[in-house]
C-alpha cells in the first residue's frame, strides 16, 4: 500500500483522539449511508411496480399485433407463415373496435375485443385473470372487466346493450364472465366477446382486424418484428407491446430517473459533511502536513491523503447504505404481514420490490463520485499549504 493511503487510513479510519473529528466523521458516514439506503429502497419499489405493470400489460395483450388498413381475410395463411419463425410461440385472431355500452340508465364507452377463446389462452393470460363466470364464451356472450362491472352495477347473467359506431347496430349481450387483470385501464374499459359476435357486430363478414402474436421473450419484440416483416411483407402494420404502450413506459422511465435524481440529493447533502470533516481535519493536522512536506512529500501526495479520506468515509457509508437498503427492501416486501393492504384498491397482496443490478451499479458509482468530488477542494487547499506557514507556530 502506498504511503499516502497508509497515512489517510491512519487519519480517517482509525480511532481519533479528537472526539469532535470522530463525531463529524460518523455524521458524514451516516449521511452517505442514509442517502444510499433511500436510493435503494425508492428505486427497488419503483422497479417492482414498473415490472408488475409491464407484466399486467404483457399478460392481457399479445406481445405483437399485426393489422392493416382494412379487414384481414387471409389471416389463417398469415398465421401459418408466422409459425415458421422460431421465436413465435402462438398466434390468434382478434377484432378490435370501439362501442358504447348501456345498462339501465348508465352508459360507458369501451374497447371491444373479439377473440377465439381456444387460441386466445395460448397468447394472453386473460383466462388466468378470470374472477367469475366462464372464459370459453359463445355468440352474444361477453366478458367484462371488474371495474366496469362495478361502474355499471352488473353481475354474471345480466344483459348489456352494445352500440356499434361502425354499423349503427344495437345488440344485446349476456355477461358470462368477469376478469381482473390488476391494470385499471383494462379492467374499466375492456369488453371481450367471441370472434363471430364481433364480426357481425362490426360488419366484418369473415374478416378480422388484428393478428395477435406471442413470442418467447417479450423484451425481444423489436427483433422479432423485423423477422415478421420479412415473412409477410410491409403492407401490414406491426406493433409491439412497447410501441402500443410507449407513452406509459416512457412516463415510468422518466419518473424513475427523476426520483433517482431527487433522492440522490440526500447523498449530495451528506457530501457537505465530508467537506466539513476534511476541513476540520486539515486544520487539526496542519503541523503534520508541514512535517510531511519537509520530509519531501509532494503537493500531490498531500492531496491524495485527504482525497483518500473522502473515499474512505464514502466507502464505509456506501457499505452501510447498501446493507440498510437491502434490509429496507426486505421489510417493505414483507410489510403486508404487519399492515393489511386493501386488495380492492391496490390489487396485490404485497408491495412489489425488485432490486435491479444496473440500478445498484449506478447508485454505487454516483455515491463514490459524489464523495470523491467532495474531497477535491479540501485536498487541494491542504496541498497548497506552505511549509513555513504550517510550522510557523511550532
Walk me through what this model shows.
The chain is α+β, with helices and mostly antiparallel strands and 394 residues long. The chain has 15 helices and 10 strands. The chain has a 6-stranded mixed beta barrel. Helix 2 (19-60) runs antiparallel to helix 10 (246-284).
Would you summarize the structure shown here?
The chain is of the alpha+beta class and 394 residues long. The chain has 15 helices and ten strands. It has two domains: 3-56 and 249-390, no CATH class; 61-243, no CATH class.
What's the structural blueprint in terms of helices and strands?
Blueprint: H1 3-12, H2 19-60, E1 64-72, H3 75-82, E2 88-103, E3 106-115, H4 117-120, E4 130-133, E5 141-145, H5 146-152, E6 159-163, E7 170-179, H6 184-189, E8 190-194, H7 195-201, E9 208-215, H8 221-232, E10 237-240, H9 241-244, H10 246-284, H11 286-294, H12 299-333, H13 343-346, H14 357-383, H15 387-390
Parallel strand pairs: 3-8, 5-7
Antiparallel strand pairs: 1-9, 1-10, 2-3, 2-6, 2-9, 4-7, 5-8, 6-7
Helix pairs in contact: 1-12, 2-10, 2-12, 2-14, 10-12, 10-14, 12-14
Key words describing this protein structure:
394 residues; six-stranded mixed β-barrel; 55% helix; 2 domains; 19% strand; alpha+beta; 15 helices
